[in-house]
């Protein structure tokens, strides 16, 4: 696990140096997009409305108002706000009962681990949370975003759950079509439904539930790999021509191949000199 956040948790005058680690991981299978014809990856270019391809240095951040007007927010302005509001100390604001928080508010789970020098204070906070059966509410900044957070015990450790702020939860009254009422349910229908709930009620065991679609997709990929069912992609480089040749061996082979094929050139016949007559 890599450290997501490093800072301190404060409870009154007690300060606990801690590190934050993501408690969950994305198990989705990632696919890439390839061109059907040339079998090469699809790349995405940033292009302005004027059809010019732009570099990161040419891009600015703007906020678009409902009436279509835009205002620019510079990097300097963003950095100034980060320095002012980015929280490196998580101060517990309140203690509440976990049952008082509706699950709709929960966002993401992180493990809290003690940093150097914080082991004893970490253990103290863990025991306080267990014995009081309360959770601590605080604020934390992770990756430039401020979150409301719940700090609670989990097994022998402490976890932090980021929460949505109330204005991030959409009003149920805005549900398209409205919220249906009892719609004239008969008493026997309600009783039959309650009976079904009783029959299906059991203790929660997370090991009983798996992502069957992902498992089947992994199996399909594994079968294709085991069958060498690959496609030829435009990215594949042609095998390098190894030009490692022993020159002397090549010369000797050439000599052997031509041996006996060539005949030595015939020497021209020379006429014997005529004898002189007296």
UniProtKB/TrEMBL annotation:
Domain Ku: 51-180
Region (Disordered): 253-278
Residue ranges crossing the lipid bilayer per the database entry: none
Keywords: DNA damage, DNA recombination, DNA repair, DNA-binding
Family (UniProt): Belongs to the prokaryotic Ku family.
Comp. bias regions, Basic residues: 266-278
Chain's gene name: ku
Protein name, UniProt field: Non-homologous end joining protein Ku
SMART domains in the cross-refs: Ku78
């Amino acid at each position: 696990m890599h450290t997501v956040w490093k800072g301190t948790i404060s409870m009154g005058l007690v300060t606990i140096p801690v590190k934050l680690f993501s408690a969950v991981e994305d198990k989705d299978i990632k696919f890439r997009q390839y061109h059907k014809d040339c079998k090469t990856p699809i790349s995405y270019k940033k292009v302005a409305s004027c059809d010019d391809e732009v570099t990161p240095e040419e891009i600015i951040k703007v906020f678009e108002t409902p009436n279509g007007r835009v205002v620019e927010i510079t990097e300097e302005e963003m950095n100034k706000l980060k320095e002012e509001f980015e929280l490196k100390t998580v101060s517990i604001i309140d203690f509440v009962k976990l049952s008082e928080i509706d699950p709709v508010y929960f966002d993401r789970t992180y493990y809290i681990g003690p940093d150097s020098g914080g082991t004893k204070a970490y253990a103290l906070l863990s025991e306080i949370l267990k014995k009081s059966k309360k959770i601590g509410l605080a604020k934390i900044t992770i990756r430039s975003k401020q979150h409301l957070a719940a700090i609670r015990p989990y097994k022998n450790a402490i976890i932090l759950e980021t929460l949505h702020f109330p204005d991030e939860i959409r009003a149920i009254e805005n549900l398209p079509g409205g919220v249906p009422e009892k719609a004239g349910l008969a008493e026997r229908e309600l009783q039959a439904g309650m009976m079904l709930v009783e029959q299906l009620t059991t203790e929660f065991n997370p090991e009983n539930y798996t992502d069957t679609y992902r498992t089947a997709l992994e199996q399909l990929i594994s079968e294709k790999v085991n069958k060498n069912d690959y496609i030829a992609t435009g990215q594949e480089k042609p095998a390098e021509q190894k030009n490692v040749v022993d020159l002397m061996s090549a010369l000797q082979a050439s000599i052997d191949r031509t041996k006996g094929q060539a005949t030595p050139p015939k020497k021209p016949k020379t006429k014997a000199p005529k004898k002189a007559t007296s």
